[in-house]
């Protein structure tokens, strides 16, 4: 292919690269900034401005040694709550999607529409009622009430149906029901068809729903902040926010290290499963 | 599961005779996977045991409705899982239970709270308000007789074992008025121990001094008789409230000033000149909270400015992100351009980065004194990015653009690529310019595809709590307002602050705001979805 003259190259594609570079800088700069700040030992907000001037992993080590902000506990709590919620969401959602997709029953259409309508009242709006309900529960069953992680997970599972059922329902519909019928003729019951055949075939959507649920739960702030009270029971979102609003500019590098560590897992998962997520997005989910 | 089960659907479809149904049942029982059956029995057994325990505890604490609800739900679940058929219910019940409690019930509960005055100073029944008012106004009666006291403990709860000035022995505790006992162990005219109770020794009293000093034991069922308190753990004195409750007239009288406080229906005892005794109690106030939101000047003004900003913010954030995403999608949607995927990878990083962290990081960069933007980019300028009303609004939109454009870029790219090429080829042949093709062909087609997503994005941003709360905290604060709001607060952060931030909480008002948000978002979504006909695609 003959080389295009620069003028023509620029008019056709060169300018696109200029815009691309500008946008890439805009997109990545805050991330580079926080990464650089995390490598700056004992740095404040002001010292963080000299990017990559001082490189050490000290902040990451200090992060786990501090008693006042139990970062290790936060990280573990976030993982536990996020994974438990994601697993529960996938199971409950898949069960519901299976029945909506494969069975015909009275109230099916009504049920699907109701799920859509219920989603318009997000749990966040009911924060006061959820808080008061948890207060009452903890008066009688302290183990699952206010200030317990099981309580928080149960609250999150209240939102397990809804959007997730929709995503899964659409995917379940793409699996031809002749597969079920063949299995039925071979003598398999509904439970066997569901657990051994269908669940394997819909694995991609289970992964997407689980991932979206994990990412969503692990950065959820409102409900986590009102239900979890003790610092060592809190999640990263609540803990890091409290930490940074208490002493904003002093311990910036510690916060930055905490933020980088907190982001590694979601970002890695996101990039690894990019293909599915982009597909899921166009099917209607929002971050 | 090694053995197959029979086809239940088929059994349902052809109405079977009694005999064949029985045959089917036996066949299923024989072949229906005994492992599955055992699993079912064990799992349901565990759940039933837990539910029974929960119901018993609830009955004991007199939560009748909750106890019955637990029993009914468990009963229904057992029936569903042990009966033939009801197949859809078997798959729906687990999710539905959580949905019913933590989404539908709490939505209804929110509506209920919105009609009450629940909040600081109004969080209990009238009875407990009367008791705590009397307690808080207690003073020692001068020259009152001393009661010889032994503090005893049973199951972690302290009781007063007193020998009154007449020599009678009585026992009482918090919420348990004094009652005579006759089997106490006496030592020199003073009761010192009681069978079944542990007597606290001196060092135990010292160790629990604070808890013991807080105990007030009512002398009788009538709160006006006063109660016993102890300063040292060995002698108790009569304390009388300076408030006197008249049950017949339902009034509180301050015995020192003679002011009569009466129940005028506002959930607190109120004096003739409007002074309220706190704590009050919880009452249903009807539409008061909604009326307050729309009429009471100190709430109405901030409420309307927050409402306006919520709409402006939600609209502009969708618009800016969509415009930038679409522009980039068009720029990169060119087959001649190389290394697109690297740009794409970098551009979706902000979307992958957890949202609450992004807001905190940007809050650092936008810090007025030390932030990177002022110190480095603007060479030490003193720009109040987050503390000036208008700049704070601008900053929020900028950060939201950073967070949101990758999403729009991704969906616009997808939508653009799904528009077939031959449409624009045909237009080109007809002599349409690139701009005309874009405006009249691509854009309308694109809108059909992304309109539902734009509505969803609008609804999401309407409640974009973490961005606002983490970046500006809703600030700068509006000091003239009666409620804790600032220039960048949106409705959902306002709800959070009214209910959970600061020293006072107004759950009733916060819930009323929640209901208003729901009505707004719900109405807009329904109208918009109707237009895009998304609902009709359900099959």
Structural class of chain B: alpha+beta
Instruction: Give the termini distance of chain B in whole angstroms.
Output: 34 Å
Shape of chain A: flat
Share of helix of chain B, binned:
55-70%
Gross geometry of chain B: extended
* Low-pLDDT regions of chain A: none
SSE topology sketch:
The complex is a heterodimer of chains A (287) and B (539).
Chain A: H1 6-38, H2 58-63, H3 71-102, H4 108-118, H5 127-140, H6 149-157, H7 163-174, H8 178-185, H9 190-201, H10 203-218, H11 222-227, H12 236-246, H13 252-272, H14 274-282
Helix pairs in contact in A: 1-13, 3-6, 3-7, 3-10, 3-12, 8-9, 12-13
Chain B: H1 8-13, H2 18-31, H3 34-60, H4 64-82, H5 87-114, H6 126-136, E1 138-140, E2 146-154, E3 157-163, E4 169-173, E5 176-180, E6 185-187, E7 190-193, E8 198-199, H7 202-207, H8 209-213, E9 217-218, E10 227-229, E11 235-241, E12 243-246, E13 251-254, E14 260-263, E15 269-270, H9 288-295, H10 297-332, H11 340-347, H12 349-352, H13 355-365, H14 372-377, H15 389-417, H16 421-429, H17 434-462, H18 465-471, H19 491-500, H20 507-532
Antiparallel strand pairs in B: 1-11, 2-3, 2-8, 2-11, 3-4, 4-5, 6-7, 9-10, 10-11, 12-13, 13-14, 14-15
Helix pairs in contact in B: 3-4, 4-5, 5-20, 9-10, 9-20, 10-15, 10-17, 13-18, 15-17, 16-17, 17-20, 19-20
Please tell me about this protein's structure:
The complex is a heterodimer of chains A (287) and B (539). Chain A is an all-alpha fold and 287 residues long. Chain A is 70% helix and 0% strand. Chain A contains 14 helices and no strands. Chain A has helices at 6-38, 58-63, 71-102, 108-118, 127-140, 149-157, 163-174, 178-185, 190-201, 203-218, 222-227, 236-246, 252-272, 274-282. In chain A, helix 3 (71-102) runs parallel beside helix 6 (149-157). Chain A is flat, with a radius of gyration of 24 Å. With 539 residues, chain B is α+β, with helices and mostly antiparallel strands. Chain B is built from 20 helices and 15 strands. Chain B has helices spanning 8-13, 18-31, 34-60, 64-82, 87-114, 126-136, 202-207, 209-213, 288-295, 297-332, 340-347, 349-352, 355-365, 372-377, 389-417, 421-429, 434-462, 465-471, 491-500, 507-532, and strands at residues 138-140, 146-154, 157-163, 169-173, 176-180, 185-187, 190-193, 198-199, 217-218, 227-229, 235-241, 243-246, 251-254, 260-263, 269-270. In chain B, strands 1, 2, 3, 4, 5, 8, 9, 10 and 11 form a 9-stranded antiparallel beta sheet that branches. The longest helix of chain B is centred in the middle third of the chain and has 36 residues, at 297-332. Chain B is extended.
């Amino acid at each position: 292919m003959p080389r295009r003259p620069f003028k023509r190259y620029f008019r056709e594609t060169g300018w696109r690269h200029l815009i691309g570079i500008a946008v890439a800088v805009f997109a990545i700069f805050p991330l580079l900034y926080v990464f650089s700040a995390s490598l700056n030992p004992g740095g404040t907000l002001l010292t963080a401005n000299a990017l990559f001037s001082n490189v050490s992993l000290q902040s990451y080590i200090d992060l786990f040694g501090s008693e006042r902000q139990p970062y290790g506990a936060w990280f573990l709590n976030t993982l536990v709550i996020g994974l438990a919620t994601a697993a529960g969401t996938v199971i409950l959602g898949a069960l519901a999607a299976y029945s909506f997709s494969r069975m015909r029953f009275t109230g099916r259409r009504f049920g699907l529409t109701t799920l859509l309508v219920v989603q318009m009242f997000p749990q966040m709006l009911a924060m006061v009622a959820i808080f008061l309900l948890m207060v009452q529960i903890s008066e009688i069953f302290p183990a699952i009430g206010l200030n317990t992680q099981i309580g928080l997970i149960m609250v999150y599972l209240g939102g397990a149906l809804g959007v997730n059922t929709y995503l899964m329902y659409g995917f379940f519909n793409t699996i031809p029901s002749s597969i079920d019928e063949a299995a039925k003729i071979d003598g398999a019951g509904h439970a066997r068809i569901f657990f051994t055949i269908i669940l394997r075939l819909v694995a991609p959507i289970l992964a997407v729903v689980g991932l979206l649920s994990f990412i969503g739960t692990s950065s959820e702030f409102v409900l986590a902040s009102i239900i979890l009270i003790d610092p060592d029971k809190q999640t990263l979102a609540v803990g890091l926010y409290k930490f940074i609003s208490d002493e904003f500019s002093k311990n910036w590098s510690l916060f930055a290290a905490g933020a980088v560590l907190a982001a590694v897992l979601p970002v890695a998962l996101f990039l690894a499963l990019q293909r599915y997520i982009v597909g899921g997005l166009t099917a209607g989910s929002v971050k | 599961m090694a053995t197959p089960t029979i086809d239940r659907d088929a059994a349902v479809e052809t109405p079977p005779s009694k005999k064949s149904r029985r045959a089917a049942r036996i066949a299923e029982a024989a072949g229906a996977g005994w492992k599955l059956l055992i699993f079912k029995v064990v799992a349901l057994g565990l759940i039933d045991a837990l539910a029974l325990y929960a119901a018993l505890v609830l009955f004991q604490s007199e939560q009748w409705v909750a106890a019955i609800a637990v029993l009914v739900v468990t009963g229904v679940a057992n029936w569903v899982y042990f009966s033939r058929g009801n197949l859809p219910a078997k798959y729906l019940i687990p999710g539905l239970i959580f949905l019913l409690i933590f989404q539908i019930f709490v939505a209804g509960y929110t509506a209920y709270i919105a009609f009450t005055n629940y909040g600081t100073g109004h969080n209990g029944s009238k009875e407990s308000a009367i008791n705590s008012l009397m307690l808080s106004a207690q003073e020692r009666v001068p020259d009152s007789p001393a009661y010889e006291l032994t503090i005893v403990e049973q199951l972690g709860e302290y009781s007063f074992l007193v020998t009154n000035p007449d020599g009678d022995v009585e026992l009482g505790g918090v919420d348990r008025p004094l009652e005579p006992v006759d089997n106490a162990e006496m030592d020199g005219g003073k009761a010192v121990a009681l069978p079944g109770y542990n007597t606290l020794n001196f060092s135990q009293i010292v160790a629990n001094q604070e808890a013991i000093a807080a105990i007030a034991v009512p002398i009788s069922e009538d709160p006006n008789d006063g109660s016993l308190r102890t300063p040292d753990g060995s002698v108790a004195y009569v304390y009388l409230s300076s408030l006197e409750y008249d049950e017949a007239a339902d009034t509180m009288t301050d015995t020192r000033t003679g002011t009569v406080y009466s129940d005028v229906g506002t959930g607190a005892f109120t004096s003739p000149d409007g002074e309220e005794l706190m704590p009050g109690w919880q009452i249903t106030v009807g539409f008061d909270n909604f009326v307050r939101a729309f009429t009471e000047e100190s709430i109405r003004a901030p409420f309307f400015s927050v409402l306006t900003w919520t709409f402006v913010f939600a609209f502009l954030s969708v618009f800016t992100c969509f415009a930038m995403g679409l522009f980039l999608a068009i720029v990169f949607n060119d087959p001649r351009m190389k290394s697109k995927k690297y740009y794409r990878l970098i551009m979706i990083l902000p979307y992958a980065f957890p949202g609450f962290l992004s807001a905190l990081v940007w809050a650092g960069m936008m810090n007025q004194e030390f932030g990177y933007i002022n110190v480095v980019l603007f060479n030490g300028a003193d720009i109040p990015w987050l503390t000036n009303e208008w700049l704070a609004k601008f900053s929020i939109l900028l950060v939201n653009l950073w967070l949101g454009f990758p999403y729009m870029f991704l969906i616009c790219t997808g939508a653009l690529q799904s528009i077939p090429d031959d449409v624009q080829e045909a237009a080109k042949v007809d002599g349409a310019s690139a701009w005309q093709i874009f405006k009249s062909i691509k854009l309308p087609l694109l809108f059909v595809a992304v309109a539902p997503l734009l509505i969803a994005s609008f609804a999401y941003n309407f409640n974009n709590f973490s961005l606002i709360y983490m970046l500006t905290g809703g600030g700068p604060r509006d000091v003239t307002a009666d409620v804790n709001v600032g220039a960048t607060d949106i409705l959902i952060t306002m709800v959070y602050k009214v209910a959970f931030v600061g020293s006072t909480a107004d759950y009733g008002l916060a819930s009323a705001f929640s209901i208003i948000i729901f009505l707004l978002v719900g109405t807009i979504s329904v109208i918009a979805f109707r237009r895009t006909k998304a609902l009709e695609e359900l099959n």
